[in-house]
Structures are given as structure tokens and as C-alpha cells.
Specification:
The structure is a homodimer.
Chain A (H helix, E strand, L loop, with lengths): L5 E7 L10 H11 L4 E6 L8 H4 L7 E4 L2 E4 L1 H12 L7 H31 L6 H23 L11 H11 L11 H11 L2 H12 L12
Parallel strand pairs in A: 1-2
Antiparallel strand pairs in A: 1-3, 3-4
Chain lengths: 222, 222
């Protein structure tokens, strides 16, 4: 046990998931505010620690603890970190709510289309229906990215200054890294590079990758 | 123009969308806190009012205005209404953040699976790949509902007392009304009935349905 704010993470994931696990969002926020945090790790394919489902009802990563407070959902955790530390959200009311709107938009208006694309292009790629489903979702992914691209325009960040909205959107766009969708929108590609080029992002990603030092799961049936 | 808080809504939708448009969430919140609101309406199949994309970057419904403040994303609007009126969120810190976590969970951990099911069971039902995609997403819908059912247990509401998390989750479950998934989880079916049985929900739904008094779109090519 530790007194530090604690985020759960994996100590092993399959290669395709490296850099995509969502604890990256929380690590990035802590690196931006310059505060230490601790991790509790287990394998992506391992049984969850006893009682984990009470902490994270979907048994996913991350869950978060700060003292007595327990929390799940990356959107909620980012909002908590921003509110607690008075950072990563603009102070001016319209800009603050614009950032919160984009935080939700990343999770609900953009990510689901990306997840669907990933499900058909990668996870279910071998199924006989996957090509049709993938083809049908591609225009949806493009439409969502075009909306974000148009809204972003020439600005550096979604709510003017860097905020939790950008931590969310940049990591949502990471989910498309096996495709060339983002490159179709030059200002969005530049935005993504600007986000992943931040020193705090790099420290967070390095820390996440360094935690993948656990054993691979035993072959099934062994 | 009006000084009242204003939500955008449709004045015409195809039949399958009745009761599913997301402005219902915002109307419900205002009915719960007992405050008036105004609507600005247009047809679901009509061009958006000029400048709407600056207000709602995805050109969806709802967008929201309160005085000078403009906002989009139902999760953000619900959070704004709750914070502004000191209502619909528990006061105790853990319960408050639990409600916020479930607000996000409705939008990101549950709704996307429901949307995918709807996309294959209804929207694309005639496509030759839709049956395979639908079959593949059904276990995901069941898994998500089981998680919510297990977490809810015997409680009436997700964060103990009624909150914006319930406005979100009940309306997310509305999206499965053309299926029998929710009925497979008796405590979830009872929760959904408890939510939609609230007088404020009924007033919100009646108001939404009453606004569908606009003209149907002209047949294409006419």
C-alpha cells in the first residue's frame, strides 16, 4: 500500500495493445501536473485481484484511488485530477466547459467509431462478415475526424489552452494508429504529433511500457 | 430569443427514433430540478440552422445555451446543470464521484455496445454482413449489462440516490428497447422501469414527443 494516488495498469499485454491501454491517460495527467503516482499492476489476461470488480465494475484498466476516494472511467479520473489540482482545465467558464464538452466528445462522439474500426480491422479481421462491417464504419470514422479537424481549425488545442480534453482526444486518436485516417486531416495529424510530442506524454508512455515486465500468460490448456 | 436555458431538439424524426433523441436527457434533468427551459427545433433530416456547427461541432442534437454559455455533449450538459443547481449529484465526495464515474460509464462503457447492436439489428439489417456483425456484438451487450446489473445489485440508483448517472444510464438502456436484453437482468429491468416511471421523465418525454410537429422531409428527388 502507498499513500500516493494510485492507478491500476497491466504488467503484460499482447503486442497490439502496447501504447493503447487507458491508464496512459491518467499517467499523462499526473506527468503534466508534475505529481508522483503509484501503480498496481496485473496481467491483461490474468484473473483480476480479489475485490477488483467492486473498484472497477467492468474489470478494466484503469481504476484509481486517492486516499479514501476510489474512482473508475478515465473521463471521470481526468476530471477529478484537473479539479483537485486546479490545472489542465481553463479558468474562464466558457473555455472550461468547452474543454469538458470535448472530454466527453472524445469518449462518446469519436472513440466508439474508432473502436468499431479496430474491432473489424484487427480483432475480427478473419471473420467472413468483418470486411463488410469494416467498410461500413470507415465513412463514420472519417466523418468524426473531419468534425474534430474542422472544430480544431488552426488552434493548437481544443479549448484554446492544453487541457484534459487534449489528453483524451490525442489518446483516442492513438487507437487509429494501425490505419492512415488521421493523416488524411493535416491539422489533426499535427495536433496528434503536438500532443504525443509533449515531454509529459513521453514520460507517461515510457512508464507504461516499462511496467510491461510481467510474465506472458501460459498457453491455453498447459 | 429567450432568456431561458435553451436546448436544441428535432421537430421531426423517423418513427424508429422517437423517444431516443438525446435532448430527452437534458429535458429530464430540467424537469427533475423543476426549472423551465426553452427549445430550438429543426427537422432531423433538414439542413442545420446557419452557424449550428460552431455550437455543436458534430451537428447533432442537443446543443445547449444558458445565458452566454454554450455547450454540447449530453454528459457535459448534465454535469453543468447538476453543478449549477446543486442538485442531481450526491454531496458526499465518494458518492459524487461515483455518480460522475457512472455518467461516463453510461456513455463510454455501455452505450457504444448498444449503438453497435442497433446499427446491425436495425440500420444495416438488410446488408449481407449485418447478421454476422450483430451476432458478434450480442455477447458484448450482455456482458456490459451484466456488469451494470451486478454493480447495481439491490440499490435503487447507481450512486445511492437518484443522480445524473441514472438519467444517463436509463436513457442509454432506452436504446435497447427494440430488443429483450434488459429483460434478461431483472434488477436492471426494474431499475429502468423505476427511472422511466418518474414523473419528471414522463413530462420530459411528453414534451419531446409534442415537439415532433414539423413537416416530414420531402421525398428525395421531389
Amino acid at each position: 500500500m502507498t499513500d500516493l494516488p494510485t492507478v491500476t495498469a497491466f504488467d503484460w499485454v499482447p503486442d497490439f495493445a502496447k501504447g493503447l491501454v487507458r491508464d496512459l491517460r491518467v499517467r499523462w495527467a499526473f506527468e503534466e501536473v508534475g505529481l508522483p503516482y503509484a501503480t498496481e499492476t496485473f496481467g491483461a489476461a490474468s484473473p483480476r485481484p480479489e475485490g477488483y470488480v467492486q473498484w472497477q465494475p467492468f474489470e478494466q484498466v484503469p481504476a484509481f484511488r486517492d486516499g479514501e476516494l476510489e474512482l473508475f472511467e478515465t473521463g471521470a479520473i481526468l476530471l477529478y485530477v484537473a479539479e483537485k489540482h486546479g490545472s489542465l482545465l481553463p479558468e474562464e467558464e466558457q473555455a472550461r466547459w468547452q474543454a469538458i464538452a470535448w472530454l466527453f466528445a472524445g469518449l462518446n462522439s469519436v472513440e466508439p467509431a474508432c473502436t468499431r474500426y479496430f474491432a473489424y480491422a484487427v480483432f475480427n479481421a478473419g471473420k467472413d462478415w468483418a470486411a463488410g462491417a469494416k467498410e461500413a464504419v470507415e465513412p463514420l470514422v472519417r466523418q468524426k475526424l473531419k468534425r474534430v479537424s474542422d472544430a480544431l481549425g488552426e488552434r493548437d488545442w481544443l479549448a484554446g489552452e492544453f487541457s484534459i480534453a487534449d489528453i483524451m482526444m490525442v489518446t483516442v486518436l492513438n487507437g487509429l494508429k494501425s490505419s492512415s485516417f488521421v493523416a488524411e486531416f493535416p491539422n489533426l495529424a499535427a495536433y496528434h504529433a503536438r500532443g504525443t510530442g509533449r515531454p509529459a506524454y513521453k514520460r507517461a508512455l515510457d512508464a507504461q511500457l516499462a511496467d510491461f515486465d510481467g510474465p506472458a500468460p501460459a498457453p491455453q490448456g498447459a
